[in-house]
Amino acid sequence: MPSFDIVSEVDNQEIDNAINQARKELATRFDLKDAQTEIISEKNKLVLTADDAAHLKALREIVIGRLSRRGVDLRNIEQEEPALSSVGHARQELKIKQGLEGNKAKEIIQAIKSQGFKVQSQLQDQQIRVTGKKKDELQTVIQFVKGRDFGVATSFKNFRD
User: Fold this and answer.
1) Which of 1, 18, 47, 114 could crosslink 70 through cysteines, CB 3.0-4.6 Å?
2) Can you give the residue range of the structural domain that contains 129?
3) Concatenated DSSP letters for 29-56?
4) What is the tens place of the pLDDT at every residue in 62-76?
């Protein structure tokens, strides 16, 4: 039976490229010349630190701008509230969401079922496997999911006959 997977992934190489470009821009920005700013890349999150809230805001704008230019879908970047210390240092985490979480996956499955497509969809390890008898029906499901905004970036892979 033909099938495909609905996934929500972010390309880690593009995130690394965006971070490197942001660091290069930080080195040349006049308004951030004497500021102590830093971008720390950890597994599935970025930590931004700066001297104060204004520098942190500029740093966040640079990083978000570079991520969007590199083609990273910003719906998969969750921005935490900035933490300001009493001495003025500012820190913010940007969490990178990989895979479909339970609630979003259930919402997508319910939307597919409510449309009455003749397909089966099931959650498998943070991705949704959709199977059906006809390729045309699967392509209709792909167009339906592309047309709706579920709050996360969706992509499709492993289209099999």
Assistant:
1) 18
2) 3-8+99-160
3) -STTSSS--EEEEETTEEEEEESSHHHH
4) 999 999 999 988 888
